[in-house]
Design a protein that fits this description.
Blueprint: H1 2-24, H2 27-37, H3 41-51
Helix pairs in contact: 2-3
Biased composition (Basic and acidic residues): 7-22
Region (Disordered): 1-22
Length: 56
Amino acid sequence: MIKKMEKKKEKKNEKKEKKKILTTESPQTWSCLKAMEQKEKKIIIIIMKRLLPKNS
């Protein structure tokens, strides 16, 4: 049950992030989001690792 709630929360946060990115970022990020929606997460992760400094 708790995990389901966490996943729902994550999805909501993802949507918020997407909106934030859409309003502020470049076309490159936009194509990232499109790919994400097609569930090509491996590609996204690779792109994000290149774009973002390592926090995790």
